[in-house]
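Hey, I was hoping to borrow your eyes for a little while. I've been puzzling over a protein and I'd love to understand its fold better. The fold is given in discrete form, as structure tokens running alongside the sequence. I'd be grateful if you could look everything over and explain what you see. No rush at all, and the record is pasted right below.
>
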Amino acid sequence: MFEHLKEKPADKIIALAQAYRDDPREGKIDLGVGVYRTPEGVTPIMRAIKTAERQLWETETTKAYTALAGDPAFADAMIGLILGKAVRRDQVAAITTPGGTGAVRQAFELVKMADPRARVFVSDPTWPNHLTILAHMGIEAVPYRYFDNATCAVGFAGMMADLDGVRAGDVVLLHGCCHNPTGANLNLTEWRAVVDLLNARGALPMIDIAYQGFGDGLDEDAAAVRHVAANCPEVLIAASCSKNFGIYRERTGILMAVVQDRGLHKVTQGNLAYLNRQNYSFPPDHGARLVSMVLGDDALRADWQAELEEVRLRMLKLREQLAGELQRLSGSDRFGFIAQHRGMFSRLGASPEQVERLRADHGIYMVGDSRINIAGLNATTVPVLARAMIDVGV
């Protein structure tokens, strides 16, 4: 049987990471893989998570299954964190998932089960896994313009023109904040226009929010999601705890389905639990329990929020430093967009040839579309990157 299998293309980001590891140069810089790093290059365990782990080790008495949907305390805590008071709790069906990727996959499974003909509109560009999962599942993906390469900002007019083609029953996938890979976000006025269009067409918004707290703050980063949830009859929300809680390897995520019609809540919750059962049965609990412990304890939550704010402000400072250094070296303000972008990523607007020269000549590794992980920089390497960018003609 296995002789019928075909080679699959290597994941470009993972391949990039391997190439970086194989590079013997001492001054090399890794801006590819999307994990947060301290100035020393370490992805830390957050203080509140470490404290919660110690508490859990002392108090946990069983490793028995929780429930098909996961621990209700985790769902309650995450719904509160992301949606606040935008909707009532009994309007939200939810399941714990293995990471944000698991939430995205289960969301697409729910869409396909509800309407096999549904198309999913996806921003151009988007996180590559969105497209590969859709292709693997046989769901039609329809690109809509998002990033203007000339301005390195959202091309909103083109986006709305493309979304004008959505039909009733289509799904429109949106990034809740800190757009990956570009770092360019819609403003609230633009979000309202998108909601009005989708409601008029009978399309379903699906929001992937993986970086809450990395952009403008916890509540600020959730503002768009809350507006959509409060103003659309149905919404899917896939959320990750990997970044803002720093628990990448614990694979902790949640899928929420906001249902304004209370009569549909029970059947939606049942279908979500069914999908978990068919896929991995009971979801993992360790990371979810740590998150619910942190969010449910005033002292731990305050410490977590303080450390998350330190992370956010550090990335903003790096953005400002890089934009300022590029302005000094180029005599132009054309790189001001870097300071305006939010989250871990920015797309620099470099060509694939320039990206290759940055790697070959300067030992600077980034994704071929010139996406960089801002958190891969520190105060010392920012000037190195800036000089290299000018050298290769970005």
